[in-house]
């Protein structure tokens, strides 16, 4: 897969600002990485139960997408932390951060795709349909010395996501027609691809 770090000179000042603002003590500064072959990535599926650590242990609830959605990720799809947009059933479209991989801190045996929707929901939404568009890549999944470091990294990811989604090239996906489509029409509710 081709991955290219883009540091446009006209954004040098901004990059320095990002480096300053969006660097938790344990992760490298965020740098925009263009993944032209795999992003944007569109996925839709049912929300299933994970280990339940998101809310309880990390204070960041995550919605786990059903395994068939994870299994359909393209072979060259890089694991790591992504940002983009999400919608539960036919509700509003919110900002999101998604972790794809094996959660090295918890040493999971199964690859998962877990989305933190940046919104305070009053109830769990297991069994609901979740649509996500991944538009940008933040970093690799990492192991950490302790839980506080993982929590700090996730908090940083959320800030990066919010900031990056203000950019017009990412913001435009909030109103993508994908979010208007019936999940059943998306390949039996399990759509996966970047077409
Ligand atoms: C934005 C974000 C970043 C994450 N980064 C990491 C990471 O670097 N390393 C890791 O092991 N897990 C990472 N995770 C995954 C969490 O460990 C996982 O979502 C949490 O354990 C909840 O999983 P569960 O729903 O299966 O209980 C991240 C999750 C999110 C939402």
TrEMBL record:
Keyword Transferase: yes
GO cellular component, one term: mitochondrion
GO molecular function: ATP binding; riboflavin kinase activity
Keyword annotations: ATP-binding, Flavoprotein, FMN, Nucleotide-binding, Transferase
SMART domains: Flavokinase
InterPro entries per record: Riboflavin_kinase (IPR023468), Riboflavin_kinase_bac/euk (IPR015865)
Residue ranges constituting the Riboflavin kinase domain according to the UniProt record: 36-166
Keyword ATP-binding (UniProt): yes
GO biological process, one term: FMN biosynthetic process
Any Pfam family hit: Flavokinase
Protein name: Riboflavin kinase domain-containing protein
Source organism of the structure: Allacma fusca
